[in-house]
Amino acid sequence: MPLRPFAATLALLLCSPALAQAPASAPASLVLELNALQPAEAGCRVTFLATNRLGGQLDRAAVELALFDAAGTIDRIVTLDFKDLSADKTKVLQFELAGLQCDGLGRLLVNDITACEGAITPPTICLDALETSTRLDVDFGV
Q: What does the longest C-alpha to C-alpha distance in the chain come to?
């Protein structure tokens, strides 16, 4: 019997509005996933998934990438224009990189975000809140 008052008190506490808090919202992020590499006529087609979770429309986003070969030697630096990214929407983007062999690619490094324009502040949030991932055996990150 002594457990009943304890159980009733516990039930009241757990149902209390002070303890029943809404889950915290996810932090702002710009998510880039390296999704595919496919040989193309002129070189290599690189496919990304981009998700804007920054809390507002991005009118333009551009990413400077350093591309390394499998041995770790830099091949080139390119700037890819992701154009506009709607808030809370995932977008598929493909870029054909002339003269690049897909099977020779070892790493993609986000060197900088060269454009981060739109209804978000501060403009540095694109790099500060960047999250990267890859589905390939190629390193991708900051």
A: 80
